[in-house]
Design goal:
alpha/beta, eleven-stranded mixed beta sheet, 26% helix, four-stranded antiparallel beta sheet
Length: 523
């Protein structure tokens, strides 16, 4: 390619847990362009999803958090290079293995000028649990009956057991802190007066199905940010249409192109493509509570009836990678050796057909797979599985749904057979994936796999403070999940974006794709 940039992240991320300084935190990603250059006052970004709401933590998708992360900020943040930084948290201390004191930065205010307090932090986290919102998986081990406000600037978080990775999980963008007073004293409108955060931008205008206009938070605690005072986020669902928009130079940044258009976009004068490995993997999810998939033998037949390597290469080429473990290669706890051994049998539809017959389905089975509308690659992947499974006697019917509709269908439980969906290890560790499969979390409804042994392995692994021992615990847990055949990894995701050559300071964030537009400047 003419100028395709690729950032390779090492698997063992170095986490910097030292407390940051004040509002002038030295962050390499925050460096703007030359002050002598003339900068645009608006950064124009195209993303794939209309959020529909600006309620923190309401929807569990990467594109959604690309929006709300501009308004609400968490206590900690993973930077694009994988380091963990204190954010709204000035410093912290463990009183013991289950009691964590969080000291907030002094002088941080919300966009309405009111001060950030410990009460706002505790309320923001607790409402996630009270309303069973998707980020509950990240704080499922916090005991809010015992957690408390110590003083205006300090909150004590108490966990039900030792939580080795809690700090990293608190960086999840769905755990952004909102103003309790703005919500309780207003109309509780998450597209209006409740939208008050500490982030670099605040709400200006929202046009459903079209775009979101944000403007700089004049009370922002980080000096000199955002680098561009106005942020426009336009919504284009289809990835091919986003690629066309990039080729037409209709925006400064276009997130997630059709991977087959990367070279064409990169060849456009004035644009370039950036790619990075991510912590996300795509899975074929099997509902273990709905017949015939409630039979382990039927689920095992799928491992013989689909061709993972061929499908990944057919659909994605050399973009991303075929599955090499239950989680992405850059994530701590990945299990490539056992995964390779388990899948050594390869594609064998005849064996799959015989397994179905032995399970009582000599005439085969007919199932439905749900896929998000507008995701070209996942729909092509579903079509590939459809063709591969046919000789095994499995008829696969593909249903495309908008993301919100798809999740509503899954949340109804036992109203679906299979789903193609992605899960992210946003703290670069296996627990962040596994916690999303615990009872009470949102994504467990895709598989309904509530096996007691599996749940106990996750909970026990989270208590292991020694890193080497914790890695072994995660690998054993992932092996157990792999052998249950309720989640089959089908692709390790790469991220991509088209960026105008005159944009400085923008990097893709592999953690949860919550890209930080506050650093970007358009010359």
């Amino acid at each position: 390619m003419k100028k395709l940039w690729s950032v390779i992240l090492c698997g063992a991320m170095v986490l910097s847990l030292a407390a940051c300084g004040g509002g002038t935190s030295s962050n390499t990603a925050a460096s703007g362009g030359s002050e002598a250059s003339t900068a645009s006052d608006t950064l124009r970004v195209v993303i794939s999803q209309d959020p529909g709401t600006l309620e923190p933590g309401k929807i569990n998708t990467q594109t959604y958090f690309q929006v709300v992360r501009q308004i609400y900020e968490p206590l900690f943040t993973f930077m694009p290079d994988g380091t963990l930084e204190n954010w709204l948290c000035e410093s912290y201390e463990y009183e013991d293995d289950t009691h964590l004191l969080i000291h907030l930065r002094e002088g941080v205010t919300f966009s309405d000028g009111t001060p950030l307090t410990a009460e706002d932090v505790l309320w923001s986290l607790k409402r996630i649990v009270d309303q069973s919102l998707p980020p509950i998986a990240y704080i499922i081990d916090i005991d809010f009956e015992q957690s408390e406000v110590v003083d205006e600037n300090t909150v004590r978080l108490v966990t039900v057991r030792p939580a080795a990775t809690l700090l990293k999980r608190l960086a999840f963008p769905g755990l952004g802190i909102a103003s309790k007073a703005a919500y309780e004293n207003g109309t509780q409108n998450w597209l209006g007066d409740a939208v008050v955060g500490t982030g670099p931008y605040k709400l200006k205008d929202y046009m459903a199905g079209d775009r979101l206009e944000l403007t700089a938070n004049e009370n922002y605690w980080r000096e000199g940010e955002p680098a561009t005072p106005n942020l426009q986020l336009r919504f284009i669902k289809d990835d091919t249409s986003r690629s066309t928009e990039a080729k037409a130079k209709g925006a400064d940044i276009v997130i997630t192109l059709n991977h087959r258009e990367l070279e064409a976009v990169d060849a456009v004068d004035g644009m370039h493509v950036v790619t990075v490995p991510s912590t996300n993997s795509v899975y074929l999810m099997l509902n273990s509570k709905k017949a015939p998939l409630d039979d382990p033998a039927v689920r095992e037949a799928f491992t013989y009836g689909i061709n993972l390597q061929q499908t990944a290469e057919l659909v994605y080429g050399d973009f991303g990678s075929a599955p090499s473990g239950m989680i992405a290669p850059i994530v701590f706890g990945n299990n490539p050796d056992s995964f390779a051994e388990y899948w050594a049998h390869g594609y064998d539809p005849e064996t799959a057909k015989q397994m179905l017959a032995d399970a009582g389905y000599p005439d085969g089975i007919e199932l439905e797979i749900l896929v998000e509308t507008g995701d070209t690659a996942r729909n092509e992947m579903a079509q590939a599985f459809q063709a591969q499974l046919a000789p095994a006697g499995i008829t696969l019917n593909i249903t495309q749904l908008d993301p919100v509709v798809l999740y509503d269908r899954v949340n109804a439980q036992n109203q679906h057979d299979l789903v193609l969906s992605g899960l992210t290890c946003s703290d670069y560790e296996a627990d962040n994936f596994l916690n999303q499969l615990l009872p009470g979390s949102n994504n467990i409804k895709m598989t309904n796999f509530d096996d007691p042994t599996f749940i106990e392995m996750i909970e026990q692994g989270a208590t292991v403070m020694d890193e080497a021992e914790r890695e072994k615990a995660w690998q054993a847990t992932l092996d157990y999940l792999m052998e249950a055949n309720v989640m089959i990894p089908v692709w390790h995701k790469d991220l991509n974006a088209a960026v105008a050559d005159n944009v400085e300071g923008f990097e893709l964030s592999p953690a949860f794709e919550e890209h930080y537009y506050q650093f970007a400047k358009v010359n």
